[in-house]
Amino acid sequence: MIDLHTHSTYSDGTDSPRELINCALSAGITTLALTDHDSIAGWEEAKQALRGDLSLVLGAEISCLTEEGISVHILGLLFDGENKQMLQMLEETRDSRIPRMKKMIQLLNAEGIEITMEEVLSVVSDGATVGRPHLADALVARGYIGSRNEAFDGLLNNDSKFYVSHLAPTPEVAIAQIKSAGGVSVIAHPFASFRGATLDEVAIESLVKAGLNGIEVNHRDQSESERIVLLQLATSMNLVVTGSSDYHGAGKLNSLGENSTNPGQWELLEAMADQRRVVRA
Questions:
Q1: What DSSP element (H or E) covers 3?
Q2: Residues 135 and 120: beta-carbon distance below 8 Å
Q3: CA nearest neighbour of 191 among 224, 154, 149
Q4: Residues pairing with 211 in the sheet
Q5: Residues 32, 55 contacting (CB under 8 angstroms)
Q6: What is the pTM of this model?
Q7: 18 assigned to some structural domain
């Protein structure tokens, strides 16, 4: 099984990179991508933990905003982890998350929901990228909600009055930078409509012009009808089709390998990078 979208404690997952590798081996995964939000900090630990026949794809899930303010996530895979422009883009995106989090806390406080920045940071692993899941965890600890999923269904979803966007590159800029760094790009869960506004076909065509390589068609947040439309788009636009778990450990219901990528499609995608960067034990 090939799973090209997972998270560790270096963003909003609950498994360390080492634990993630162990879980992948137990689940029968053959190729695993580590794609923490706007961060490559977990790469080294994942490489050190790698063993057996498991292949490791290093990447990042990049938080983007369209000119219209629509949140888009781009998976960058197989890029050069030492590319200075790529590292700068990731750093700038991470840095914008702190003022965003403070603003969301202010909005919650104004509605009588008592939560502090210190409480949020207390549930963030060392070196991790701060995000809404950590705010959700702090709200769970306070007893305001029962789980992360409940938070994203209500208080913290993209249409909530408590939601605040953060400074981020446009998806076109992110895709171009990934390509410049030698990697490949896949748009993650593009039709996950419960998260908020989604892109239409015209917008996806713009991403293809920027160099987009693939579409994450099979994802738990997309219905069967949405998957059919995405598959048709991928075929018409000559894009690679991927399927992934978007695994976060105990933070979400997603299970490793619950959606996977066809080996032939993965071979096509890997060949589009400028170098063979898959890591093997």
A1: strand 2-3
A2: yes
A3: 224
A4: none
A5: yes
A6: 0.84
A7: yes
Strand 184-187 with 214-218, pairing: parallel
Q: 259 and 133 share a domain?
A: no
**Cβ contacts of residue 139 below 8 Å, gap of 6+?**
113, 115, 145, 151, 155
Confidence of residue 197 (pLDDT cuts 50, 70, 90): low
Q: Quick: pLDDT tens for 114-173.
A: 999 999 999 988 778 788 989 999 999 999 999 988 998 888 988 899 988 777 899 999
- The 3-state secondary structure of 214-253 reads EEEEECCCCCHHHHHHHHHHHHHCCCEEEECCCECHHHCC
- Do 140 and 88 lie in one domain? The reply is no
Answer yes or no: is 161 within a domain: no
Rg (CA), the chain: 18
Q: Using one digit for the tens of pLDDT, what is the confidence trace for 251-268?
A: 688 999 999 999 999 999
SS3 call for 61? strand
Q: Is residue 177 part of a domain?
A: yes
105, 85, 66: which is closest to 206 by C-alpha? 66
DSSP conformation letters of 129-166: PP-HHHHHHHHHHHTS-S-HHHHHHTTTSTTSTT----
Q: Quick check: 74 and 185 in contact, CB under 8 A?
A: yes
Residue 136, domain CATH: 1.10.150.650
Domain harbouring 57, CATH code: 3.20.20.140
Instruction: Give percent of the chain with pLDDT exceeding 90.
Output: 79
